[in-house]
Design brief:
Number of strands: 0
Mean pLDDT: 89
Low-confidence stretches: none
Helix content: 55-70%
Strand content: under 5%
Number of helices: 9
Oligomer: single chain
């Protein structure tokens, strides 16, 4: 669970560098990435933060990407986790065979490519996840690494959006 939630853009811009890095690290477990994004402050808009975050992810080295991926639990392991519900671990069904298939496919993916499978599965179901893993297992490593970084960017951007809260802040009551 993110410790920094709905802090707003103004507050994020005002945080001391170590605290801003910590808030960003909660969004993507890469110190290299968090430092680079933090050093782009002050941001004028959410779009500016998200663009810098995505650019920074695309520039990460393979070891930095793999390190960030290791912070994501293997798919299908965290049942009913509230923070994971918005991301890839939202896929959870009572059918133990389906869940075993998901875990096995995730393990096969990791053996094949050498890094953890992630997928921004918001609004998708277990069968779509199994189809996604199956299709991606046929990709060459170079293609799959690009897809994986794109999926990491989607997840990271949703975490940044939760960290910042609604653009323009909350209405006053």
């Amino acid at each position: 669970m993110l410790l920094h939630q709905s802090i707003g853009l103004e507050r994020f811009n005002e945080l001391p560098r170590p605290k801003a890095i910590h808030a960003l690290y909660e969004c993507c477990c890469s110190m290299t990435w968090a430092c680079w994004v933090s050093d782009g402050r002050p941001f004028r808009s959410y779009a500016e933060v998200l663009a810098r975050a995505e650019d920074a992810l695309l520039d990460l080295s393979d070891p930095d990407v793999e390190s960030a991926l290791q912070c994501h639990p293997p798919v299908g392991l965290r049942a009913h986790s509230a923070p994971s519900h918005l991301e890839q671990c939202s896929i959870w069904v009572a059918d133990k065979q389906v869940m075993a298939s998901i875990r096995n496919a995730g393990e096969e993916y990791e053996r094949t490519f050498g890094f953890r499978y992630i997928w921004f599965s918001h609004r998708h179901d277990a069968h779509e996840l199994l189809e996604n893993i199956s299709v991606r297992l046929s990709n060459p490593l170079s293609v799959e690494r690009k897809i994986c970084v794109d999926e990491l960017a989607k997840i990271t951007c949703t975490r940044i959006e939760r960290m910042l809260g609604p653009e323009g802040g909350y209405p006053e009551y």
